[in-house]
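Input structure tokens:
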């Protein structure tokens, strides 16, 4: 992992969105670290999630009908 630290960095050199959060500070300490690639692991997780779904898959209409039937039972 790469890391860069700059002490006493002029806040005026920062992007506008960061300057807004600093309440007029003149100097800041900046720490920049590279992030690990999270995307491949997340894709694997999603693939596992989709693979774990069990058939039969119900249609929207079938689900709606079940909900209506349950609602009717509650009203009795």
């Amino acid at each position: 992992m790469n890391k860069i630290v700059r002490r006493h960095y002029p806040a005026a050199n920062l992007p506008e969105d960061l300057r807004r959060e600093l309440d007029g500070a003149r100097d800041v300490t900046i720490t920049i670290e590279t992030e690990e690639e999270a995307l491949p692991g997340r894709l694997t997780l999603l693939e596992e999630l989709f693979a774990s779904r069990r058939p039969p898959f119900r249609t929207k209409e079938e689900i709606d009908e079940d909900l209506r039937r349950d609602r009717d039972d509650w009203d009795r």
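The chain has three helices and two strands. The first helix runs from residue 16 to 19.
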